[in-house]
Amino acid sequence: MKNNTQEPIYLRDYQVPDYLINTVDLQFELTEEFTVVTSALVVHGNPAAIQPKQDLILHGEALELIAIQLNGKALSEQQYQLKDDTLIILNVPKQFTLEIKTRIKPQENTALSGLYKSCGNFCTQCEAHGFRRITYFLDRPDVMSRFTTSIIADEIKYPVLLSNGNLVFAEKRADGKHMVKWEDPFKKPCYLFALVGGDLECVEDYFITQSGRKVILKIYVEKGNRDKSAHAMTAVKKAMRWDEENFGREYDLDIYMIVAVSDFNMGAMENKGLNIFNTQYILAKPETATDLDYIHIESVIAHEYFHNWTGNRITCRDWFQLSLKEGLTIFRDQSFTADTTSKTVARIHDVKDLRNNQFPEDAGPLAHPVRPDAVIEINNFYTATVYNKGAEVIRMQQTILGHDTFRKAMDLYFTRHDGQAVTIEDFVRTMEDTSGLDLAQFRLWYSQAGTPILTIHDEYDANKQEYALHIKQSCPATPGQAHKKPFHIPVKVGLLARDGKELAHDLLQVKKEVEVFHFKNIPVKPIPSILRGFSAPVKVNYAYTDADLQLLMQHDTDLFNRWEAGQQYALHLILRLTKDFRANKPLHIPTQYFSALQHLLLNLQHDKWLLTEMLILPTEKYIAEQMAVIDVEAIHHVREFVLVEIAKQLKNHFLDLYEKNNTTLPYEFNMHDMGLRQLKNICLSYLMLLGDKTIYANFGMRQFHSALNNNMTDTMAALACLVNIEAPERELALNEFYNQWQHDALVVDKWFALQATAKLPMTLNHIKQLLHHPAFDLKNPNKVYALIGSFGQRNPHCFHIANGEGYQFLTDIVLQLDRFNPQMAARMVKPFSEWRRYDSGRQHLMRQELERMLNTQTLSKDVFEIVSKSLKKHEVTV
Fold this sequence. Notes:
The chain is of the alpha+beta class. An 8-stranded mixed β-sheet has the order 6-5-9-3-2-12-15-14, with no helix packed on it. A hairpin with a 5-residue loop joins strand 17 (200-208) and strand 18. The chain starts with 8 loop residues before the first strand and ends in a 7-residue tail after the last helix.
């Protein structure tokens, strides 16, 4: 099929399936040459189907059909039709059994979808459409069945054989093989099917549920990684207890298993009772994992575990409802992380992710609603909008209903829809039925794309002691949606006096295009603290002065908004300086800005992690989002200038804090020690920007050597500084790091990523050389994300080099990847999607590369969808 004939599927065309599959009995015979899959299906007509077809149409991909039997009788070739991606069984009865035998070659499955091999072990990834690469099936989430899985394999090569549910049978056979049988008592769609066969090590523990049941916990890892599994096991138990206490959800099987594999397109997968994880979200010990790795492992483990209820027990009716499970579960794992680390810093990280990834998506050609209207390839909709903005939409409902009422609504959701495949309307209806609120307008968050903008001005009547906030909402045009209806936006607001005293606070419900909110008995004109806790995923335009922002930084009782004020202060400063830079004017930073930072350094040391976040400037990517035409050189030059000036002005404070927090105690993962490390390392990053490279390079090398064998957090912090200086220490540290950790794949990924994000002019040449490094493998997603993904998405200064060399490089890589792993290739293309935001020269160069991809005859539909949408003309307003 030619690329330009790819047709989208529309939400409006959804119809219930003509047939349902009550039970699925699978048998896998795993061998080195191929795998034979036998499926026995009990099928019946769907009573909800309006005009059911008499033919059963099954999905299939890259399968060799061996045999078909209907009700025990082999079908002739006249009784079925076999096409590239479907098997049509003609004129079937209303109820029947269907047995299909297929042959597949997992060892040749480089797409890593369906059944494939990773480091010699068999494993599966069936979301979204991987199951059709295993056997012919009704591969859609609203077909829920009870699965029984038998696996036969060589006992020596594959001693571990796993699938969903509970183990009900195991035997050794005379031919050196063994067989196991797993039974899942709960109905599930086929995308939640999982199988693992391999020679793996196991860490075992148990958990006692709130009702007193004992659940066996098992984490399987590749040999040699057992010592890196303890943190993951602790995280599982922490997540299980948290879900019981906060949502009343108890685990429902006798055993809960996790398998960590090295080759995985995603972070992890929530298959019922058998979660399959990318190794980077399981393996950790102080020598190999950073503080943020430890937190991410807890978060991802919690996310996949929480899916047991929000995704498995209750799943989505169709893939357009994807945020029903992903946005909701992201909200749940974010809440878990906030409760188990720092609420403020966790919220800061959530918002940073949203602004750096989802806001640009909302402002570009790939913008789509939380529930998309149409898809060509569903894998392309595992996006920041569906996940992160979807989570914000859930959070807004919690804000509007209140915490207690929201919890009652969630209880109703679990009770009402257990065992069902449902829609976003079903979820919101439980919110309405519990609260008595009408959320019809709120539903627009699911159907309208784009980031709303709140333009706010105020007025104060000293005689009446009355203060008014005027709020106007708007939303830019997005592809297919030129005009937007007003959203229902919850806006948390506080009012502060000039001495920092809080005068009032309220939750404002903005529903109209223009609204005015009055506050009485306000004795002085206040400074508004707007959108506290980031109560809605919107942009705010309010004419804060630098003095206003400085006061909020120092006194706002909402700690998130203290951080936000600091970000806005820095952002205003940088944007002013970029204008001076373009006008060839000298760059100057007002002393008040340094005074504001000095106040933080002196007065916020009791919350070291928050202090660290307040010392981090907005990213180049976020700064770029504020410009009508992105000026790559100005953003980079000015941001670096500000960093250096901060280092110069506050050097003594950074030196003092570095020494005070530079503990040599053994690594422990706890909030106190993490605060020490984070503050110490941000101080080091500033100190190493100072002009005397010899002195401060020695600082970095000293920390690097002292931490290299026992503390990856401090090692990586030092190496991240050293990799950005043009000095002999750079190569020495990079070589020492690799020599120390060359046999640990995940640590080598960190080494690749640091070099890919280096600010130095020769970065792209280094990346090209690293493609030929013996540790790099283009077929391994982790390696590609570390080296290529980091360069394209986290190094805008080097990627957007004016001669277009970065664009040509990325296109070459995408076209190579697309030949064997389209999902991975499509993820690499996204930096091109904002090409219209740049100057005319860069626009021309990026467009050339997009057209080069589009004109490739063998282009996958995954990449085609991203490229064609990026090139399509549409109205986008910044």
